[in-house]
Amino acid sequence: MQFDRFGFAIYGNTEESQDDIRYHDYDEGSVDSNFLTTQRVWEKIVNNWEKYTNGSPNKEMVKMVYHDLVDVNISEYCIDHAIITLSKYECSSSIESSNMTAKTAARISIMRQIMVDIGRSFPTHRKFMGDLAEGKEGRAQLFRLLMVYALYNPSIGYCQGMAFIAGMLLMHMNEEDAFWSMVSLFEKSKYLRGYFDKSLSRIHRNAEVFWRILEQKMPKLWHHLDDMKIHPLMFITQWFMTLYTSLPCWDTVLCIWDMTLFEGTSTLFRIAITIMMQLEDELLGATNLTDLMPCILKISPKIVKKSKFIPAVRKTVLPEWEIEAVQAIIHEDKADEVAKRKRLEPELDELGSRDKRSRIDETQAVVTSDNQVSESSLLQKLAGIISGTKEIKKHKARRTSQITPKRRQNDIRRRRAKPVMIEMKNLGNVKVDNLASNVSMLNNPLYSDAKSRSINNQENTFSFRKELNNDQLFKTARNDWFCSSAITNSPDVEMSDFNKQSVRLKLELENVD
Amino acid sequence: MDEVHTTKVVLLGRTGSGKTSLIVRYISSVFSENVKPTIGAAFSKKTVQLIHGEERKQVVLAIWDTAGDERYESMAPLYYRNSSAAIICFDLADRQSYNKVDFWVKELVEKVEQNCKLYICGTKTDLLAEYGGPLKRAVGPTEVMAYAKKLNAKFVETSSKSNYGIDDLFKLVAADFAGFTLCEAPPIEDSLRLQEPNQTDVNEKSSCCF
């Protein structure tokens, strides 16, 4: 068996190759050195792990859980057997013939689910494939990682998609470090917090945001897709929730990961928009859904080849504030809808705990019934954003290249607040209070947290501010925010991934205290 | 010139029940152990030729393969809405996955997808003891058939590994959509014979009435 430089099996022209999504013809040149430097940066991060994890949560606890799992011997060398055993336990628990508690039953169900998935996560990568020791151990690690996480954070548990992220981490670091990386990836709002929760709330919100951004940036394509009744969740779910590991070119995937770790989830939008740009002609040429869907869902290596795709990503301008502003608009629209509905149909209140599956239906129903109203106000709001963009361009031009970090930080805050301020003007006096709190949210990476909380509990927007005053949280968030914005906005035009990563690392270490 | 019709088909069912393998077998005629979990959904299409006397029809099956993880259930309406057929899969050796069938049936009935024909598909026959596999049936065929009859659904059994019943299933879906009737009974009759039919047998069964 032959493997490519990233460890993926090359099947040649055998039967398996038909099902192999990986493209092995990588671009020559920078890849190797890039890979090495990425690894070096990872090493540094790992060596300074104490600083990142801050000693809490309790490592000992996690170690204990690991040992337990290894002792049970369930993970190591008998996955099929384990699946069958677990299924059996799962069944008997549902029949209530045993004394199993609900908690145990739930755990067994999660275990079984993970077992089923680990055999098919990166099944062509040497670390996870085959019957040799390496593959078995790789799968065992993957199992332990996911299972321990499910125990560590039961409110999230396990969700399909996580295995790809855990798998990627295991390709680059040891098990325990991979675990802590996973914890920060899944729990920091800058990264994937909310993507895997029980209602998958964040991806639903992201889909709406992406759709509006696409409408604004590529109206022709947007109309074309909309006419075919394509919903963004049909494709961005796969992209966002596996951090693009489903793309065929692995060198491109690594680059995307670099950018995402550096800039946070706004990169995910940037990549998605870039893919749409690259696909635009092909998609516009497709006259029906059956021709169009395969182009988006099975992206050809031609489209995402690193030498062509990554420069295109760098050219795509989609700053974080723009995404957040769109998010705020949608949030406002929702609040409006809720208020309107409350006025019109008070009985709907009783449906507070309504079935989550009907949510998509209902949102659409509301949109159609209020079509005209929401459309015109949306236009107004978008106009606000666009004029905001112009303001910012001017603003940026005025900026001198020698700004102190402190000034730069304030500068950035002002720029982020601006579009929302403009939007406020456009909206007149409607809900200024609410918007003002949105502005303060926008200035903080904790924003998405606060937002999800305020959606859950419309009355209680103040809990967010209380949390802002909590020194520790605010400090970390501010440091995070400062580092990333300082680098993204630095006058050096095209920094390589390596430079960005190491600068960020340096800055982050400096700002720890 | 043949008439061409496109129809939307959706696959539902518990995680690991073999939905993606079924599609991969049908579309690419291979069985792969390397089918990755479906995140969100996947899309495939295949054209089925139907011949009925003088009448010829082409049916393009636009097939949505959905994620089995319960958390993705909130997205399912995107895929089953306006489907003309729903294939609800369950693993014949896994009682839990059979229990999930009822969930999807209720969901479809509740959301008033009245034009959506239901197909209940028991997967992985190759794993059953009666076909020489290691596992016992978790649910008897008479139970499933009674259930399917009550719903006016069709019940088929398949194996993606040994390529059993799959072409038949999709031919049946296409023929039902086009209003054709197959002269042979649906493949469940085969499975009740409790033996694996050979390749040529399957091919004969899949032809339509003339």
UniProtKB/TrEMBL annotation, chain A:
Q: Which Pfam families match?
A: RabGAP-TBC
Organism, by scientific name, is Trichoplax adhaerens
What is the protein name given in its UniProt record?
Rab-GAP TBC domain-containing protein
- What residue stretches are annotated with the Rab-GAP TBC domain? 32-264
Write the signal peptide boundaries: none
Q: State the GO CC annotations.
A: cytoplasm; plasma membrane
Q: Which GO terms describe its molecular function?
A: GTPase activator activity
UniProtKB/TrEMBL annotation, chain B:
Which UniProt keywords are listed?
Nucleotide-binding
NCBIfam families per UniProt? small_GTP
Its lineage opens with:
Eukaryota, Metazoa, Placozoa, Uniplacotomia, Trichoplacea
The UniProt family comment states: Belongs to the small GTPase superfamily. Rab family.
Sorted alphabetically, the Gene Ontology cellular component annotations on this record are:
cytosol; endomembrane system; Golgi apparatus
Coiled-coil portions: none
One GO term of the biological process aspect: retrograde vesicle-mediated transport, Golgi to endoplasmic reticulum
| Origin superkingdom | Eukaryota
What is the official name of this protein in its record? Ras-related protein Rab-24
**What molecular function does GO assign, one term?**
GTP binding
